[in-house]
Amino acid sequence: MTVSPADWQALWVSVKLALISTTLLLMLCTPLAWWLARRRRRGQALLEALLALPLVLPPTVLGFYLLLWLGPNGPGGLVAGLWGAHSLAFTFTGLVLGSVLYSLPFVLQPLKNAFLAIDQDTLDMAATLGAPPWDRFRNVVLPLARPGYLSAAVLGFAHTLGEFGVVLMIGGSLSGQTRVASVALYEHVEVGDYAQAHQLALVLVLMSVVLLWGLFRWQRRPGTLT
Amino acid sequence: MSLQVDLKLRRGDFRLTVNGRLPERGVTILFGVSGAGKSSLLKAIAGLQPCQGLIRFGDQVWQDEGDSLPAHRRPVGLMLQKPTLFPHLDVAGNLRFAARRSGADTGRWREVVALTELQPLLTRGVAGLSGGEAQRVALARALLTEPDLLMLDEPLSALDAERRQALMAVIARVAERLPVLYVTHQLDEVMTLGDHLWWLDQGGLREQGELTERLAGLHGPLAAGGQAAVVLHTRHRHYDPQHHLLELALGERVLRLPADGPRGDTPRLKVAARDVSLTLSAARDSSVLNILPARVDSLRDLGHGQCLVRLECEGQWLLARLSTLSRDSLGLRPDSTVYAQIKAAALV
């Protein structure tokens, strides 16, 4: 199999993007999912609907709005001004922002479900055994939610890896910076280079299969809580 | 230290107002029908359920109008009705969770593990434990928090009779140093362990006080349930191996009870009201071994042709359940002198 150096580079950009986005999402979604799972507040349904929007919205719609926000005339342009640039569109930072938004429900939902499955009595018991809130979170919630974290990480990673519509709108396909594997594949097809396309597609399929296989294998392991 | 509560609790339509004081040591039985709010009260005292009012333990204020001490800072050992073990830890891990945070040392650890007979289970996961095993782990865990107040919600309900006896002895020993609030429906646990009583009824604390005294009331919690019974405090006198009889002193009188051996220096006896009958003269030709002179203190009509008679005998109370016909034909009224025939009594 001969994947060209440019394609390896695109694969690396994809993996880097997925790793960074997933890490950010796990950090961001932990408090958010905990808050959504433990409280019932007015307006919560609306908030959850907005957070789930990337599930149903065509990626190009999301990409279009992101393009406006990240561009020179949006808030992204203002932020970019801090380090002398004038736009976040067509940058790796912009891609990370887009991916975080796009993959958010895939990380948030498993975490929220994992937190919901933890019995209040179990947490109460930890409190009467002398564990303060952070201690309870660290030593009861996190270990019990571990399968949820694994699902969230794998789904977030795989979904970012497969991102196309959003990247197409805000990525710009700059080699080594914003050209991700899915876009590189599209470009091969556009110019009729089916051989290259085959190889890249196969690598992506294999990566996804391995990831999901690992996830399901782990979930079915005897003695794990799911 | 003693616990003092004066609190109001509301949950949907359910309201509970409790104003009570727990003695400095000894087991206080928290009695009440299901739904009376027993578990909610325990949780409120532990700081797990919001409530209004005052909770004070010794000179510490756990809750007042403005402030509430968070649950993890209250020195409470709590065992909920379901054992609620941590599923991600094994038995030892569950115990360690408590011991690490309370600073219980190895000596204490060994003692608690031995008392609850958990040694063979320590490396087991909690998912495979039986109900009784899980209760023993939960009890050990509560003891390892080194609490100043122990609250147990039906802690022995899933255990077999032998283990229950053993663990009741453990709890009784703990209660020699600190107050224990104990929820149970089991009459033998009430009689064996109870020193005091809190009776929750109709959204409030209907009675509180010394258990023996409360049980012997004509309107006591057991009388309401049709199971009226009293506890007699006796002293050991003699064991007669030939007839398998234990002789116990009740004041100046002697009670004889079938038993396989002596049962300590101060055995408690449970005597159910339905096992006591009354005569006006001492029968000499009866097979009943225990016939005691007594004085009628008061009577209560239970309806359905039944009545409950409270008797004073050697400074302790007895209850007898009779038909109203017997009452009238014997002409019983307060201060009548009678003989109480105790047909059965159980060592508890």
Please provide a written account of the structure.
- The complex is a heterodimer of chains A (226) and B (348).
- Chain A is mainly α.
- Chain A has a single domain, classed as MetI-like (MetI-like fold, Orthogonal Bundle), CATH 1.10.3720.10.
- Chain A has eleven helices and no strands.
- Chain A is globular and about 65 Å long.
- Chain A starts with a helix and ends in a 6-residue tail after the last helix.
- By secondary structure, chain B is α+β, with helices and mostly antiparallel strands.
- Chain B has two domains: 3-210, P-loop containing nucleotide triphosphate hydrolases (Rossmann fold), CATH 3.40.50; 232-347, RNA polymerase II/Efflux pump adaptor protein, barrel-sandwich hybrid domain (OB fold (Dihydrolipoamide Acetyltransferase, E2P)), CATH 2.40.50.
- A six-stranded mixed sheet of chain B has the order 6-7-8-3-9-10. A five-stranded antiparallel sheet of chain B has the order 16-20-17-18-19. A four-stranded antiparallel sheet of chain B has the order 2-1-4-5, with helices on one face.
- In chain B, a hairpin with a 2-residue loop joins strand 13 and strand 14.
- In chain B, helix 2 runs parallel beside helix 4 (131-144).
- Chain B is globular and about 65 Å long.
- The model of chain B has no long low-confidence stretch (mean pLDDT 90).
